[in-house]
Amino acid sequence: MCFSYIPHEKSNFYQICEHDFHEVIESIVVDLKEKGTVFVCGDLNSRIGETNDFLYNDDLDKYIESVEQVQNPIISNRCSMDKFVNSFGRRLLQMCYDTGLTAANGRLGNDKHGNFTFCTANGRSVNDYLLVSPCDYELISNFEVLQLNEFSDHSPLYFELVFTNNRPSHNIPKFHTYIKWDNNKNIDYIQLLHNQQDRLLY
Question: Residue 24 above 80 pLDDT?
């Protein structure tokens, strides 16, 4: 689970920061995807409207023999009450294309309409997201945007994850053996290494 915050593109902090936040998040996602399931959640200050956040399968394999056709899971269309796309939104969409993550907002759980996540006197928008791979949709049993409260101008994102333990319990050891170094045995250890040096080197 990667919780992220990207400062608003017009904020003073963003103007002086030397890091590209979208690239940082993308590199973290790419690194973690090799190890398992990845979710990204947070205020990304990115407005993606209802633009597709995934690339459709192309027919390139019909023309080039070396292209392996990958079957993607069925991805439902996403709705959003925010129809606007900003420059950070375009960057977020590119990150989704590059990593295979998609927005749960307006697609999963009880958020069928893509409710606004941010509200001020200046307007409303969707810029807080849960990003997830379509292969992991089944791990999300619910997703919704909760009501605004007095503590923030952002609505909390609520989601439930379902994990199963597929390992048989009889294979899990009841006790673990730990080896603790005894400083009083330093000389014995060095002597043992010297005595076994020929066997260790060959």
Answer: yes
- Measured CA to CA, the distance from residue 112 to residue 82 in angstroms comes to 13
Q: What is the pLDDT of residue 103?
A: 98
For residue 35, report the phi and psi dihedrals to the nearest 5 degrees: -100, -20
Between CA 96 and CA 100 the distance in angstroms is 5
The CB density around residue 160, as the number of other CB atoms within 10 Å, is 11
The pLDDT of residue 56? 73
Task: Tell me the domains of the chain and their CATH numbers.
Answer: 2-161 (3.60.10.10), 169-201 (no CATH)
CA distances 146 to 45, 48, 114, 139, 167, Å, are: 18, 20, 12, 20, 35
